[in-house]
Design a protein that fits this description.
It is a single chain. The chain is of the alpha/beta class. It is built from 3 helices and 24 strands. The chain has 2 domains: 78 residues, Rossmann fold; 93 residues, UDP N-Acetylglucosamine Acyltransferase, domain 1 (3 Solenoid), CATH 2.160.10.10. It has a 9-stranded mixed β-sheet, with helices on one face. It has a 6-stranded parallel β-sheet with strand order 7-10-13-16-19-22, with no helix packed on it. The protein has a 5-stranded parallel β-sheet with strand order 8-11-14-17-20, with no helix packed on it. 36% of the residues are buried.
């Protein structure tokens, strides 16, 4: 399912990227789309003729720069939810514009997913749980039990958040890490018991 309008679809990213390839493969099953690099996007004179989604994941700074530009200019963004996903209803979840939901994801009743999120295959966003804008869940991630995640967070393979935990903005969780308690300080976390990794100094 694609939520958008009738304008031509543009994926902002790099053709050699595996994430971009996956985006295009799933979108083109029902709708044609064009892939353009960020530099080509900025050079478009009449940007309002199109609707967009951002597939860049490698460089978070570049991704955020493009998203901020799209929002500042009030440009249209479309949302992709794969047909194999299970979506709750009454009350239905909210999924923000520019988000991409991969196959076999479960999004439960009253869940909230922010704008420009990427939800990997086999992930679950549980009842009344929420993700802030620009979060990325890699495959097999679980955000459940009414837990809350801030903006710009990354959850790597099969990590999980439960027990109504609250995660602040700009947090990255390493693979197979379970979060039972709230995280109030941004940074990278791993293991059980949970440890914050030291910040590298240059």
């Amino acid at each position: 399912m694609i939520i958008g309008n009738k304008k031509p679809m543009v994926v902002i990213g790099y053709k050699e990227s595996s994430t971009t390839s996956e985006f295009v493969q799933l979108i083109e099953g029902t709708n044609p789309c064009e892939v353009i690099t960020p530099s080509n996007f900025y050079s478009i004179l009449e940007k309002s003729k199109y609707q967009y989604i951002v597939s860049i994941t490698f460089d978070r700074g570049e991704r955020l720069e493009i998203i901020n530009f799209l929002e500042k200019e009030g440009l249209d963004m479309f949302t992709v939810i794969h047909d194999t996903c299970i979506i709750g209803n009454k009350p239905a979840p909210i999924i923000g514009a520019g988000s991409f939901v991969f196959p076999n994801v479960i999004i439960c009743l009253a869940a909230t997913i922010g704008k420009n999120c990427i939800i990997g295959s086999q992930s679950i966003v549980g009842h009344r749980s929420s993700l802030g804008d620009n979060c990325w869940l890699r495959p097999g991630v679980m955000i459940v039990d009414g837990s809350t995640v801030g903006k710009n967070c990354i959850f790597n393979l099969r990590s999980s958040v439960y027990n109504k935990a609250k995660i602040t903005d700009n947090v990255e969780i390493y693979p197979f890490t379970s979060i039972r308690k709230s995280i109030e300080e941004e940074g990278k976390y791993v293991g059980y018991p949970l440890k914050k990794l030291p910040t590298k100094r240059i």
